[in-house]
Fold:
Amino acid sequence: MNIWLIYGILVGLLIMVFLRVKWRREFRKEQSEAQNREFRRKMNFSNEYQQVRNRVNQNLGEIDPGPKPKISYQFMYNGHAWDACEVLGLSPDFSAEELHQAYERCLQGEAVESEEFFRHAYDTLVNFK
Structure:
């Protein structure tokens, strides 16, 4: 009777070892498939990145830099900050002739006290241009 008990225990151990090896193989197989999927995903991303990079390099001359930043010509008068272009009614890309005409137009019909204010705006723009 003892021999049959030992044989039963040995057979049970062999079955457990066999199943454990089988489960390990399946686990490793699943793990390697997951790693392969991750590797393929990374490679696809790398290929897509390379394709986008190549397109950007090919079209580099055609890229629009976007709008130019607005230049602000600020000056201080009577404790406040003023934009000289707004005071004289000019756009930021004005010419010297437009500046002089706007200054003369602002001086016409204004009080004497305002002349100093317009002069500060005019001087600010002359110094920047």
Summary: Helices lie at 2-58, 84-88, 96-107, 112-128. Residues 79 and 95 are 28 Å apart (CA to CA).
